[in-house]
Design brief:
By secondary structure, the protein is mostly helical. It has nine helices and no strands.
Length: about 190
Amino acid sequence: MSSPLSAKATRRELNARQAETVERVALAAREELRAVGFDNLTIRTVASRAAVAPATAYTYFSSKNHLVAEIFWRRLVQRPHLEQNTDVPLDAVIAVFTDLVDFIADEPELAAAVTSALLGPDPDVRELRVLIGREINNRIAAALGPESDPEVLDVLNMVWSGALLQVGMGHARVERMGERLAGVARLVMSK
C-alpha cells in the first residue's frame, strides 16, 4: 500500500518493494517513539520492530535524526491543507496555526523528537529542514493571501518554529500553544 509520497525518500526514488520497506520502517519508528521515546530509539530497535535487518534500515535512513525528520515531513505533507473559508487573513492564519498545533498534539512523542532531530547536522536532515520549512511557509502564505507582506510571513514562520521548539523542549504545553500563536498572529498582523 504505497502512496506517491512513499515512492520517494530523501535520498532517492524507490521501487514498490523499497517503498513498502520504508513505510514499514517508518511505522515501526513511530511505534518505537511512543514506546521508548527519542532518547532510547535506535535504528537497530526500529529495524527489529519492522522485521528488517539494521543494514536495510540504514540503507534508507542515515541516522535516527534522519528517520524522525523524514517521518515528521511525511506526516506533515500528508495532512490536507485547510480550505480557506474566510476572506480575513488573520482568521485564516489562526486556522492554520490551530491545525498545525492539532497535528503536533496528535503525536507528542514525534513533536518532541523532531525538535532534536531537526537540529542535527546530517545532510539528509538539512534537506528535510528545507522541505518542512517550505511546507509550513506555503501553508501560512496561503492563509495570508497573495497581497501579504513578506516580513509578516517571515515573522509568522519564525513564530511557528519557536512554538515547535518550545513544545519539543517541554517549555510550553501544546494544549495552550494554539491560543498563544493566535495572540501573536493578532499582534503581528494588527500593525
